[in-house]
Amino acid sequence: MRLVIVEDEALAREKLASSLRTVAPGAVILAQLASVAEAIRWFTANPAPDLLFSDIQLTDGLSFELFRAVPVRCPVVFTTAFDEYLLEAFQTNGIDYLLKPIRNTQVAAAIAKYHAFAAHFTVDYAQRLHAVTHGAAAPRDRFLVRKGAGHLVIKVADIAYFYTEDKLVFLVTNATQRHLLDKPLAEIESNLDPAAFFRANRATLVHIDSVLRCTPYGKGKLLLELRPPTREPVVVSQERAAACRQWLGA
């Protein structure tokens, strides 16, 4: 087995590597990476390993940025101290989700799960997993939101952006109306047309027609000016900047 570790805490990184050497003595750890940027560089320059162990919250962002920036054609075991990313993890090549502190028994179980599914881990694993998790359904064209004692139908064409605030997800229309949704942002993103919507950052999902201006924001980042205006600046990370420009047609 060829393994890669993405973990920004040196002690946690070494403990995981030690655990892997114990439970999978024949495995080779190809790289131990400490950031999203470092992981993007490595996966851009190297063939995919058999299995990736990745923390979610890294110093320069969430590891999900890696999967949006480059095709990662291998299964992933996510390691984290938080359980709030469970859904998004399993929509991003995830086969297991280990909560810290991680024990050898958890690592051994994850390795066993990999071997159990090994026949399915071919070069087109990412595409086939995406098809299974997202299905072949057409992108949704409307959302049902609560309005008083009833519900209101909002067409996707009338939506400017989605954003999170205090762990709540809101929909904002072109007419500046704000509605609370009961679905996580990752699930909403998976049901929308990627040509029309872009995940600008962890907290914001933007419709292309709502973008008024895109300007440099230091260290390779971008600042998006949206209509209607947002409460907080919408900043695209350096790793996502190129994809954002391409999405906007640059």
Care to describe what's here?
There is one protein chain. Helix content is 30%, strand content 33%. It is built from eight helices and 17 strands. It has 250 residues and is an alpha/beta fold. The chain folds into two domains: 2-134, Rossmann fold (3-Layer(aba) Sandwich); 142-248, LytTr DNA-binding domain (OB fold (Dihydrolipoamide Acetyltransferase, E2P), Beta Barrel), CATH 2.40.50.1020. The model is unreliable at 121-126 and 132-136 (pLDDT under 50). A five-stranded parallel β-sheet has the order 2-1-3-6-7, with helices on both faces.
Enter the CATH topology name of the largest domain. Answer: Rossmann fold
> Which stretches are poorly predicted, pLDDT < 50 over at least 5 residues?
121-126, 132-136
Domains, number: 2
Q: What is the averaged pLDDT score?
A: 87
CATH superfamily grouping of the largest domain = Response regulator
Outline type:
globular
Q: Number of helical runs?
A: 8
Q: Biggest sheet, in brief?
A: 5 strands, parallel
Helix content: 25-40%
Strand content: 25-35%
Strands of the biggest beta sheet: in what spatial order? 2-1-3-6-7
Question: What is the CA-CA span between the terminal residues?
Answer: 40 Å
